[in-house]
Write a structure and sequence with these properties.
single chain, about 475 residues, mainly alpha, two-stranded parallel ribbon, 11 helices, 2 strands
């Protein structure tokens, strides 16, 4: 029976590519406002990016404080009276995140893993894996041929020896001639088999290498997909985070514009100096520049997302809302159990395992000695310790983000309580509309901070789960 070796079979991966879309993504960029006219400024009430109106005083005009012109109440248009609960609802409505992308293909967070398969690096890693499979199969075929050649050589010389012996048994050869010719056949066989043995040894060494390359190529696919998924998810969350900053920056600009208008009114009545008005006016430009910077970063963030998922940069897209986050599940995570899962699914550890396996099993590689095997095993142990440290950092970052979210939520509730108290004082005529507007602005900012903390918590939790490969 001929000696054979099992050929490695592997299924080829199917590579999918995303369809190219032609539309260009556009952002709406606000233009810088010119120097304002001398007319007093006022807020526009009712949009998602404006301050809510303060509660109107139940007092008559004669009951208002006499310094109305000084605090701006005489020139500020006050909306209908609202309750503290209505103020809270208005702030909650403003917490919704509008999209700065204009139409185009809607991208939901859950679609990201499937979209990443079209990333160029992911496609290259799959092609490399296919090449590694083909190389292994070629090597297996060559090794099988070499083993067949060995068997054939043994059979050929055995046949020749049998024929020689038959001649000797028939008395056609003398003892001396038979011994001489048999020794010559043995020498030829040894030389032929020695050459085939060397070929088999080289092919077995090559097969160990190709199997290692195939294993690492397979891990590289997973690693690349994870990396691109992480990048795309970070860009998706980054979009929402930047959008929150954009909302807050626009609201602050409105507030500064209102203050500038109020300062202009006071200046017209000689209630403040020109320097005081200039200070209010000069505060507008840095805020407008900050808005432009955020819009620019939104563009860059969207381009980064398209690159990560393999979409053409000219594709028009819009981001969907964030999925619901089970905040209560975060403090229930088991540090020890999750650490074991993290180590189990670590690509770095799996690569170290493959390297150690190759070093321990590559019996035909003269370059691999005991020191190299020990070094590979040590590298594996170090990689495990590194993975554990990475997990600990991820776990701590998640818990810190959770605490920040809780504290930010408490701070927001405190701002709401302060606003409720201030509204009561305003009804009694002992607080100005300016004070109410300032507190409502503080409530709005605290709600933006809460939203930003929520997005950061979501980001940290997603990174944590990605590390567990969940």
């Amino acid at each position: 029976m001929k000696r054979t070796t099992a050929l490695l079979t592997a299924s080829l991966l199917l590579i999918s590519t995303a369809a190219s879309l032609a539309a260009e993504t556009q952002f709406s960029v606000g233009q810088s406002s010119p120097k304002p006219s001398p007319t007093p400024a006022s807020f526009s009430v009712g949009s998602a990016t404006t301050l809510p109106s303060p509660k109107a005083s139940s007092k008559t005009a004669t009951a208002a404080p006499t310094d109305a012109a000084a605090d701006g109440r005489a020139t500020f248009s006050v909306g209908a009276q609202t309750t503290a609960a209505k103020t809270t609802n208005a702030a909650a409505t403003q917490a919704q995140t509008p999209s700065t992308s204009t139409g185009g293909r809607r991208i939901d967070y859950s679609q990201i893993p499937a979209l990443v398969t079209s990333n160029l690096d992911v496609i290259k890693s799959k092609n490399a894996y296919q090449s590694a499979i083909a190389s292994t199969m070629d090597t297996d075929e060559s090794l099988a041929d070499a083993l067949d050649s060995y068997d054939e050589t043994v059979w050929k010389f055995a046949s020749s020896k049998d024929q020689l012996y038959a001649q000797y048994a028939a008395g056609l050869l003398t003892d001396e001639i038979y011994t001489e010719q048999r020794a010559a056949l043995d020498a030829q066989e040894d030389a032929a088999l020695e050459g085939i043995d060397k070929q088999i040894e080289q092919l077995q060494k090559a097969r160990n290498n190709t199997l290692y390359q195939q294993e690492t190529a397979s891990l590289r696919i997973v690693s690349t997909q994870r990396s691109m998924t992480d990048a795309a998810q970070a860009a998706f969350l980054g979009y929402h985070s930047l959008n929150e900053k954009l909302l807050a920056a626009k609201k602050q600009l409105e507030y500064l514009e209102w203050q500038e208008g109020l300062a202009k009114t006071k200046r017209a009545k000689n209630l403040i100096s020109q320097d005081a008005y200039n200070k209010a006016f000069d505060a507008l430009r840095p805020q407008k520049d900050a808005i432009d910077t955020i819009v620019t970063n939104l563009r860059k963030n969207e381009l980064g997302f398209k690159t990560a998922v393999g979409l053409p940069l000219t594709t028009a897209i819009s981001f969907g809302e964030l999925p619901a986050l089970d905040v209560g599940a975060i403090p229930l995570r088991s540090r020890d159990a999750d650490c074991d899962t993290y180590v189990k699914h670590s690509i770095d550890i799996q690569n170290a395992v493959a390297a150690a396996r190759k070093a321990n099993l590559d019996l035909y590689n003269d370059d691999v000695n005991g020191f190299d095997r020990d070094n590979a095993n040590l590298s594996y142990e170090q990689t495990v310790e590194k993975a554990k440290s990475e997990f600990e950092a991820s776990y701590d970052a998640l818990q810190d983000a959770y605490k920040t979210y809780q504290n930010t939520g408490k701070a927001h509730q405190d701002k709401l309580k302060e606003l409720t108290k201030l509204n009561v004082k305003y009804d009694k005529g002992i607080a100005s509309k300016n004070a109410v507007l300032s507190q409502e602005y503080a409530v709005y900012q605290s709600e933006r901070n809460l939203k930003a903390a929520q997005i950061d918590l979501y980001s940290q939790f997603q990174k944590y789960l990605n590390g567990l490969y969940l």
